[in-house]
Each structure stands twice: as C-alpha cells, then as structure tokens.
Amino acid sequence: HLRLDRAVKLRGSTTAFQIYKYRLGGAHEPHMDFFSDEEIKIYNDNLGNRNGIAMIFIRPTKRGGGFAMPRLGIYIAPSPGTMLVWHNVDIHGRNSEDSVHGGCPVYMGTKLIAITEYNALLQNDVCVKD
C-alpha cells in the first residue's frame, strides 16, 4: 500500500484491497461512501470518516461497466491500470454529496476492480480527540 499511498497523496489505507467482480448486468447503484456522525460512532473503530477512496480497474469489459459520478457529469470507461481517486468530504471535512458515484451495468464481458479507502484520523492534518 505504500506506493499507492504516495500516488494518491493520502496516508494509511485502512483496508486491504477489496476485489469486486461484475459479470453481465452487474452494476453498483449510485451511492456515497462517507459516514454520518452516528455511523462513525457505531462502526468505525475511531478512524474517523472515509475521506477518500482509490479504485483501480484490473480488467476491461467489452461493453459497459464504467464508473460514473452523476452530479459532476463524470464517466470513466474501464481500462486496465486506470486508477481513480475521489474524496468523500470537502476541504473542511464535511460530507460532500457531490461524491455520489456508481458502477454502470456491464453489457458484455466481466469487470474486475480493486478498491481501498482512506480514513480521516490517519491523515496528517487531523488531531486525534481524547
């Protein structure tokens, strides 16, 4: 993860890579990855919010299967080795609804991606509360 951390300019990826495989018709509905204040307290092991996500396309599809951020008008077609990085919070640490994203349906072939996340309390500019 150290090379990836340097590339995305974030510290301490908190999860091992999660590998996802999407077959014909496979998609991931638009969603947001940040936590509410309540979710942080309940689920998060004191790591803070999910500041950022890094995703790498491992296998292309023959048709479909791209990544979209509809509020920002972004669509990226799957291409092996392409890495996408997005932030789930703004520069003040507030949840950003512009980070809504999803995986478009696969129409031909199989899509394979790897994802890891970066949490707030592992970044340089955040002080841990007692």
What does this entry look like structurally?
Strand 4 and strand 5 form a beta hairpin. The longest helix has 7 residues, at 2-8. The protein contains two helices and eight strands; from the N terminus they run αββαββββββ. By secondary structure, the chain is mainly beta. The two termini are 28 Å apart.
Draw up the topology in text.
Layout: H1 2-8, E1 18-22, E2 28-31, H2 37-43, E3 50-64, E4 67-69, E5 74-76, E6 83-87, E7 101-103, E8 106-119
Antiparallel strand pairs: 1-8, 2-7, 3-6, 3-8, 4-5, 4-7
In summary, what is this structure?
The chain is mostly beta strands and 130 residues long. It contains two helices and eight strands. It starts with a helix and ends in an 11-residue tail after the last strand.
Tags for this model:
4-stranded antiparallel beta sheet, 130 residues, mainly beta, 11% helix, disordered C terminus
Main sheet attributes: strand count, strand direction, barrel closure = 4 strands, antiparallel
Taken as a percent bin, the fraction of beta residues is: 35-45%
Which structural class should the secondary elements be placed in?
mainly beta
Radius of gyration: 15 Å
Helix content: 10-25%
First CA to last CA: what distance? 28 Å
Low-confidence stretches: 126-130
What is the ordering of alpha helices and beta strands?
HEEHEEEEEE
Tally of individual helices: 2
Q: Given the C-alpha coordinates, what overall shape results?
A: globular
| Strand arrangement, major sheet | 1-8-3-6
Tally the beta strands.
8
What's the mean pLDDT score? 83
